[in-house]
Amino acid sequence: MASNPLLRGNLSSMRLSCVFALSLAATTLGLSVDSAVALDVQRNVRHAKSSSRHVKHATVRTTTSSRRIHSATPKFRHATLTHRRHRFYERFTASSFAKGDIFGADISAGEDPIVRQAAIDALGDMNGTAVVIDPSNGRILAMVNQNLALSPGAEPCSTIKLSVALAALHEGLVRRDTPVQLAGFRMNMTDALAKSNNLYFEELGRELGFERVHHYATQFGLGELAGWHIQGEQLGVYPSEAIPQSEGGVGRMCSFGQGVSMTPLQLGAFVSAIANGGTLYYLQHPTSQQEVLAFEPKIKRTLDIARYVPDLQDGMAGAVEYGTARRLRANFHELPVFGKTGTCSDKGTRFGWFVSYSDTPMGSLVTVFFLEGGRPTFGPRAAELTGEFYRNLWDRNYFANRDVQAQAGLQTTSATVTR
């Protein structure tokens, strides 16, 4: 049968149809880019050997559904998938790995040296930045690769879903367990955050409308400087109107953050407010030990979000335990971590975000890992590096030592009051 040219042509057509059907199914289910990337990697590995035996066919190019990949805008780029030999490829021109010393120009005299080294060791040779914040006062404990951390920012990808979720909770549209009817299935907020479901947040965005989405995003600090006189900090952008409906409109803005540019500092400040129950601090980056000793918190504004944080926290915990950030647990199990991944592409560069806060003996830590590059760069990888960061701190007894120091400080204060 294999010698029959007609049958060979039919078999090839059937294989192509199967691949397109898988792509359509992923789009219909509203898989996040993080989930789609994982499926793409698995498919490539599964077919690596068998594809080498196929007769070479002409390249077939196809543009994915607008539910999967961003449409072009004047300032933001979109990825195109290429189908060849029964596999889909995103074409990247950027490298995921650092060239030279990306930490050498950092000003680090006012940072916590243990936190800084733990972040550097976690990043390794990846092209990215890590920002670690004390959410109780807004102090930046470490900011590695400051050139990238202070850059104009990038599309926030699925991390934008946190602000949309809080807006919907505040407006009373849903609670964590409210089932929302989507295309052929239902989903609640906990699972939608954990699995980064795009259709769910597109629906919330359309229900909220752009004016409300914009209002909450700017209240949460998007579109304004996050730092207090941090030298070199640049401003991310939150547009004053929705992107055109032909490019996805407010729904696409709420699932991918299309049209938005966000910096690691803006995302870190926002999630710090979630971690502390609603206080949005100006982030401060001491540059000397004198500035550390003279440090005083500076409040930007107070957000009315404390009652909604438990609803949000369930989904962020789910992301780490069974969702898109579960690779974190490959490296670290000892403390609760709540987070959100994000993956998207822009003119040949893939972005990988993971923002999180932890529950430690000395209070919370907020971390933002942001990666730029090609195929090895995506949100789950940023989550994995965050797990390495926490493992590094744990192995250095950071949490135990800080707990002892805190207790010693309380005892000293008590003794002083008694005298």
Descriptive notes:
By secondary structure, this protein is α+β, with helices and mostly antiparallel strands. The chain has a single domain, classed as 3-Layer(aba) Sandwich (Beta-lactamase), CATH 3.40.710.10. The protein has 14 helices and twelve strands. The protein has a five-stranded antiparallel sheet with strand order 5-4-12-11-10, sandwiched between helices. Strands 1-2-3 form a three-stranded antiparallel sheet. Strands 6-7 form a two-stranded antiparallel ribbon. Strand 2 (81-84) and strand 3 form a beta hairpin. Helix 7 (198-208) packs across helix 9. The longest helix has 24 residues, at 5-28.
CATH topology, by name, is Beta-lactamase
Mean pLDDT over all positions: 83
Task: Give the uncertain stretches in residue-range form.
Answer: 1-29, 39-86, 406-419
Helix content: 40-55%
What's the CATH H-level homologous superfamily? DD-peptidase/beta-lactamase superfamily
Principal-axis shape: globular
Fraction of residues in β-strands: 5-15%
Beta-strand segment tally: 12
Distance between the termini: 97 Å
Q: Encode the helix/strand succession as letters.
A: HHEEEHEEHHEEHHHHHEHEHEEEHH
What's the domain count? 1
Q: Which value, in Å, is the CA radius of gyration?
A: 23 Å
- How would you characterize the largest beta sheet? 5 strands, antiparallel
**Highest CATH level, the class:** Alpha Beta
Q: Structural class from helices and strands?
A: alpha+beta
The appropriate CATH architecture is: 3-Layer(aba) Sandwich
Tally of alpha and pi helices: 14
Strand order of the largest sheet: 5-4-12-11-10
